[in-house]
Amino acid sequence: MFRYKRMPFGLKNAPATFQRLMDQFRNGLPTVNILVYLDDIVVLSETFEQHIQDLKMVFDRLRKFKLCVNREKCKFACARVKYLGLWITPKGIEVDQDKVAAIQNIPCPRNVKQLQSFLQTCSWYRKSIPNFSDIARPLSNLTKKNIVWKWSEQEQQAFQTLKQRLVTPPVLRQVDPTKPFIIDQVVTL
Asked: Beta-carbon neighbour count of residue 43 at 10 Å?
């Protein structure tokens, strides 16, 4: 019987299958400080000593699942790490400015397909853009079926605002459980 030793490229279900394996790998590890997406594993630790312990736990788990790492691609004990287009730093999670520069260079969309591509790109950073849905609404409305393409000042303003908000995004931080939480809730009937 033929059996793969590695996940072959090009199989339609390969990413989902591999992510399922990595979810099983992740199950049982501390949920707060170990991030896993496909073949990217990030270990966040408060101290160097804790980092060594956390890495040992991850490497033990890798051995258990018979997974190998490429030593050249590994980085250890870094103060900043790039993960899924974001920078994770001691201050919090920041947008990668190289990606922002690329978004700034996107020209004004001329059709629905280009607009959808722009919205999908910006949507990846929606957590870093306060009121993303409200700002993007005029653009999203243009992508609906049976809507005639009409790029007006309102769409241009939304397009420019999204690009501008990415230039100066807030730094996302972990919640401090020692401080009080304020919940602001709006109810419409």
From this structure: 20
Residue 28 contacts residue 34 (beta carbons within 8 Å): no
Q: What is the pLDDT of residue 154?
A: 95
Residue 34 CA to residue 59 CA, distance in Å, equals 12
What the block records as the tokens of 142 is 């243009």
The closest of 77, 75, 62, 50 to 21, measured between CA atoms, is: 62
pLDDT digits (tens, 9 = 90+) for 95-106: 888 888 888 899
Structural domains in the chain, CATH included, are: 13-77 (no CATH), 97-167 (3.30.70.270)
